[in-house]
Design goal:
Rossmann fold, globular, single chain, 16% strand, alpha/beta, 6-stranded parallel sheet
């Protein structure tokens, strides 16, 4: 049986912490694949203006070039509208019917799991993998959700920090892969 982690998020932009989390999950959970799934629109940030979908997909593909265990799936962008995890999990469950699916989630989102659309159904379909925040205690997972916590590579880099540094015209070279930093600069994103 294949073991796959689904890694949803805005990836606006993708950065080193995202990549290190994927690597930690791959290693700690003995995964076969990590699938990055950029959101069309977060239900928790309905007014947040994202970079164009094509740009976020291009940056993810640049960041993952040569990474044999990771791929990008544009299912949420193609579906459009607000991205609900339940819809994505059901779609990918059909695509990978015999695989064990895990869903990577930031520790800050764990307390809100009961508020997610069709939370009870989601709890039966997938095991969550909690991404720790640097220096923060382990977050308890509400019932009936199943989860485990990653231990490796917590890094205090965020997409909002990168966007702010771009607006302030500061260097982001070590915060995101060089090809992504160049894409952002060339396309004048986040100014």
């Amino acid at each position: 049986m294949h073991r796959i982690a689904l890694y949803g998020g805005s990836f606006d932009p993708v950065h080193q912490a995202h990549l290190l989390v994927a690597q930690a999950a791959f290693e700690e959970l003995a995964l076969d694949r990590v699938i990055f799934i950029p959101t069309a629109q977060s239900p928790f940030k309905p007014t947040h203006q994202l970079a164009p979908s094509a740009s976020r997909l291009a940056m993810l593909r640049l960041a993952l070039a040569g990474c044999t265990y990771a791929e990008v799936d544009s299912v949420e962008i193609e579906r459009g509208g607000i991205s609900y995890t339940i819809d994505t999990v059901l779609s990918l469950r059909k695509k990978y019917p015999t695989s064990a699916l895990h869903y990577l989630i930031g520790a800050d989102h764990v307390p809100h799991l009961p508020l997610w659309r069709e939370a009870a159904a989601l709890a039966t379909l997938i095991e969550f993998v909690v991404i720790p925040r640097p220096g923060e205690p382990v977050v308890p997972v509400p019932t009936p959700f199943r989860a485990r916590h990653l231990t490796g590579f917590p890094l205090g880099v965020s997409a909002s920090q990168i966007r702010e540094r771009c607006r302030s015209q500061l260097n982001i070279g070590l915060m995101t892969p060089p090809a992504v930093a160049e894409y952002i600069r060339t396309n004048q994103l986040y100014l």
